[in-house]
Write a structure and sequence with these properties.
Blueprint lengths: L9 E7 L1 H6 L4 H11 L7 E4 L2 E4 L9 H4 L3 E5 L2 E4 H4 E7 L4 E5 L2 E2 L13 H15 L15 H31 L2 H24 L6 H30 L4 H26 L9 H25 L1 H9 L16 H29 L1 H15 L3 H4 L11 E7 L6 H18 L5 E9 L4 H5 L10 E8 L6 H15 L4 E3 L5 H6 L7 E6 L3 H15 L5 E6 L5 E8 L1 H6 L4 H12 L8 E4 L6 E7 L8 H5 L2 E2 L8 E2 H4 E8 L4 E3 L2 E10 L4 H14 L9 E6 H31 L3 H8 L1 H15 L5 H32 L2 H11 L1 H19 L10 H29 L18
Parallel strand pairs: 1-17
Antiparallel strand pairs: 1-6, 2-3, 4-5, 7-8, 7-10, 9-11, 9-12, 10-11, 13-22, 13-23, 14-22, 15-20, 16-17, 18-19, 21-22
Helix pairs in contact: 6-7, 6-8, 6-30, 7-8, 7-10, 7-11, 8-9, 8-10, 8-30, 9-10, 9-25, 9-28, 12-13, 12-29, 12-31, 13-27, 13-31, 15-17, 25-26, 25-28, 26-28, 26-31, 27-28, 27-31, 28-29, 28-31, 29-31, 30-31
GO molecular function: xenobiotic transmembrane transporter activity
Pfam family, one: ACR_tran
Protein name: Nodulation protein NolG
Length: 885
């Protein structure tokens, strides 16, 4: 946990008087050495006397701060100089370099972080309990309040995901009831869904996974697929019941008929998720838990469809009336509605049969036209754009501000007050919960480890604006602030780092998604090139917040030491350096000393230095006494050194020990991939201007996105190959698997059309949806091809077999596809907090399945008939095509 921001660090302050030191021939080092010599707290041992053993204690350390004033510093002409003669000792604090305001009032900010295995909700609940426990002992004026509670977003996001899953399950159940027309069958399927989810949760817990947005999102994603196994099983049992068989025989025959295709379909879906496990970095940690949740749920669903579903079917399903038996009108409105739906579905089946017959009569023309449409669809890809991950509206605005370099923290705080007024003129007061500013360098370097906004000095600071529920989109406010603030404060730089935790993780701690690094040893030349490059890339459409992270204009005073003169006075460079460090930074940097408070047992630093208000001019610096703490020679800094005013770098950034200059930027109203492409073009055009020995690298989310995309694409191709080989083994044929795999291009075309129509960019979630769609589309095609192969053996005519397979599998294919589409609908709409991050996944699945279903019902049967047209050259046996199954 980082140290608190904005507070004052207590210490015993010894403010030396340079004039008093100089008058007595002393330097700050002399006082520091005396302080270290007379403030000692160590055990000195024991002594046995008589029957007792005594512990010896020495008053080596003062028991009160006031006693420090009486510490002897030096004896001059027989007179003892005490610390009080040359310094003011008081209970004080370190010079404040960090200021925090909450809604305009001075405050102290504490950030509590968790490790990766801890639960956010548990941590926040524990903190709240501790606050209530400690509150009775606090001063009445102390007000402690949470200003950034991630648990609120987590709870809302989890609630949204659970709601998505519930809506998906309800829609799916209604669809099943509509298609099957039996509440008994619907109950069987509905019972299997929560049991499969429970089994997946058990396996996830066994692997140490937690309930989070990704695992819950995977379970919500799986609901549409979970229906598949149970639906196919029940539908097949009903088909056998319609043939006049008894319930038990129908269950056994139906289960036996689909066990192999169902198992192959399960393997196809699981294999489709293999690319997830080849991701690296943060993408792996985000999406592997989701993939595991889906795979475990699918495995549990398959086991339940072979065990629980047949068992429940035996007790709930009833034999169907004989075919052709008249069915009178029912008084039950639900039954009448279902009978009407069946009549309408029968008409739809007949129209589908006519369309399929027409396609089978013109096989080559249909196949060529279908593939032409699919291939032309890929021409939309350049218009989609690409982002690594969708941004999430977390209800917060994070803004980094940099005033002119070298501005002291008090002046920066004044400027921040003006900027706060400007912010409140843009964002209505009724929409702001809290407005926090964090100005300057934190009290400890460890805090910089947890800062991802690029704070580098007293001129930097951050605004954190928390918005109330029901607020306007944060992106609208950010867009307005980007326009208004630079106009009102032209000498100030503004940038908007990501406020949501997912984007911060994807940035790997960087303050922006675009990170251009110019690496090389010639820092000045690299900085000049960076300024030229910055000027060019600011014209790139969609680029925002472009700035150079480092600065080479920090005000600097060079202390030019005359080593010869110093040596004549008995001083070395080290002596002068230590004197300056003690006076300016404090004795704790050279000789740390502590005072133990006997009242509370806490040790506080004793810091000796010259108060900053005394050194407000170069003349004051020149009159600082300089000595070595061991000889009587004491002179002034001006006697051995001169001062030069110049500028320099406020910090030094390195990559693998090599100096670098960075340009950071973000995007607005344009996708990251297109912006990165334009930046690369500019870098390539300026290749001749790169300083000799230097390199230019485009990193950040751009690099991570490209690695993730390449990993997913290659993984997807590998998954298709594995699926093909699996189907080859199952069918013992090279042709039928090729028919199935060739239909997957339609799913990709559907994904492209859906992303284009909804204005959704290509992202890792969208590619994840594409991967899932591949598995489901393959599973449906396997069912059609399996039935077509069976009918081919009986009919010995590929056209008739393809036609009968399409008609027979129309209902289960539509049911599984619609179940998946309805299950994805709430996710595609981006409902709830954080719904934006999984919306591309749902949209990709819906678009892919829409096209894939058309391909499964038309393209696959037609291509099957073409591939098997020469299998039986003898005259086929004429069989009537059933009008309904």
């Amino acid at each position: 946990m980082p140290l608190p921001y904005g507070g004052k660090q207590r210490q015993v302050q010894i403010d030396v008087n340079p004039q008093a030191l100089q008058a007595r021939g002393l330097s700050a080092q002399d006082v520091s050495a005396a302080l270290a010599a007379h403030n000692i707290l160590v055990p000195i041992g024991t002594q046995k006397m008589g029957e007792l053993e005594y512990t010896l204690q020495l008053n080596g350390a003062p028991s009160a701060i006031e006693e420090l004033e009486m510490l002897p510093v030096k004896v001059v002409d027989g007179s003892t100089l005490y610390l009080r003669d040359v310094a003011d000792v008081h209970d004080g604090n370190a010079p404040q370099t960090n200021i925090v305001h909450v809604d305009g009032s001075r405050s102290v900010l504490m950030s509590v972080l968790k490790n990766g295995s801890a639960s956010t909700l548990a941590i926040v609940d524990g903190i709240r309990q501790q606050i209530e426990t400690l509150k009775p002992g606090w001063p009445e004026a102390l007000n402690v309040q949470p200003i950034n509670d991630q648990s609120l977003f987590v709870r809302a996001a989890i609630k949204g995901v659970v709601l998505e899953g519930a809506i998906a399950a309800a829609l799916t159940s209604v669809m099943i009831l509509l298609f099957l027309g039996s509440w008994r069958s619907t109950v069987i399927i509905a019972v299997s869904i929560p049991l499969a989810i429970l089994g997946s949760l058990t396996l996830l817990a066994a692997l140490g996974e937690t309930l989070n947005l990704m695992t819950l999102g995977g379970l919500a994603l799986a609901i549409g697929i979970l229906v598949d196994d149970a639906t196919v099983t029940i539908e097949n049992v009903n088909w056998h019941l319609e043939q006049g068989k008894d319930v038990e025989t129908s269950i056994l025959d139906g289960a036996r008929q689909i066990v192999t295709p169902a198992f192959v379909s399960l393997l196809c879906i699981c294999i489709a998720f293999v690319p997830m496990f080849f991701l690296d970095g943060v993408s792996r940690y985000l999406f592997v838990p989701m993939a595991l949740a889906v795979i475990f749920a699918m495995v549990c669903s398959f086991i339940l469809s072979r065990t629980l579903v047949p068992t429940m079917a035996k007790y709930l399903l009833k034999p169907h009336p004989a075919q052709g038996a008249p069915q009178g009108p029912s008084r039950n409105p639900l039954v009448r509605f279902q009978q009407g739906f069946e009549a309408r579905f029968e008409r739809f089946r007949q129209r589908y049969q006519r369309v399929l017959e027409a396609a089978l009569r013109r096989r080559k023309a249909f196949l060529l036209g279908f593939m032409a449409v699919v291939m032309l669809s890929f021409g939309l890809v350049p218009f989609i754009g690409s982002n690594f991950f969708p941004s999430v509206d977390s209800g917060q605005v994070l803004m980094h501000v940099r005033v002119p370099v070298g501005t002291r923290v008090e002046e920066t705080a004044s400027r921040f007050a003006e900027i706060e007024e400007a912010i409140r003129s843009v964002i209505p007061a009724e929409e702001i919960t809290t407005l926090v500013d964090n100005i300057g360098l934190p009290p400890s370097n460890i805090n910089l480890t947890y800062n991802n906004t690029g704070v580098m000095g007293s001129q930097d600071g951050d605004f954190q604006i928390a918005l109330r529920p029901g607020h306007q989109p944060t992106e609208d406010y950010v867009r307005t602030l980007r326009e208004v603030l630079p106009e009102r404060f032209p000498d100030t730089t503004f940038s908007f780092p990501p406020a949501d935790i997912v984007s911060q993780i994807l940035n790997f701690g960087a303050p922006a998604p675009i990170d251009i690094q110019i690496r090389g040893n010639d820092v000045d030349a690299n900085f000049a090139y960076a300024q030229q490059l910055l000027k060019r890339i600011r014209n790139v459409p969609g680029l925002a917040d472009a700035r150079i992270l480092q600065s080479n204009k920090a005000p600097v005073f060079n202390v030019v030491l005359d080593r010869t003169q110093a040596q004549l006075l008995g001083l070395t460079t080290r002596d002068v350096t230590n004197s300056l460090v003690v006076n300016l930074a404090g004795s704790s940097q050279v000789a740390p000393t502590y005072w133990l408070n006997p009242a509370n047992g806490v040790s506080y630093p004793i810091v000796l230095q010259t108060p900053q208000p005394r050194l407000d001019a170069l003349s004051a610096l020149a009159n600082l006494p300089v000595g070595n703490g061991s000889t009587a020679t004491v002179t002034t800094l001006g006697a051995v050194a001169d001062f030069e005013r110049t500028t320099g770098s406020g910090m030094v950034s390195q990559y693998n020990v090599q100096p670098m200059v960075q340009i950071h930027a973000a995007t607005q109203d344009r996708d990251l991939g297109a912006v990165a492409k334009d930046i690369r073009s500019i870098i390539a055009a300026m290749a001749g201007d790169v300083p000799r020995g230097s390199t230019v690298n485009l990193l950040g989310q751009v690099q991570t996105m490209e690695r993730a995309f390449s990993g997913l694409v290659y993984g997807l191709l590998g998954a298709v190959v594995l699926i093909y080989l699996l189907i080859v083994i199952n069918f013992q044929s090279w042709r039928d698997p090729a028919v199935i795999v060739s239909a997957l291009s339609a799913a990709l075309a559907g994904i492209v059309w859906m992303l284009f129509a909804t204005g959704t960019t290509l992202s890792v979630p969208a590619l994840t949806g594409a991967i899932m769609c591949m598995g489901v589309a393959t599973a449906n095609s396997v069912l059609v091809i399996s039935f077509a192969r069976e009918r081919l053996e009986a009919l010995r005519d590929s056209t008739a077999a393809a036609l009968e397979a399409g008609i027979a599998r129309l209902r289960p294919v539509l049911m599984t596809a619609l179940a998946m589409i309805l299950g994805m609908l709430p996710m595609a709409l981006g409902m709830g907090e954080g719904g934006e991050q999984n919306a591309p996944l749902g949209r990709a699945v819906i678009g892919g399945l829409l096209f894939a279903t058309v391909a499964t019902l038309l393209f696959v049967p037609v291509l099957f008939s073409l591939v098997h047209r020469h299998d039986f050259r003898t005259a086929p046996v004429q069989h009537p095509v059933p009008g309904a199954i």
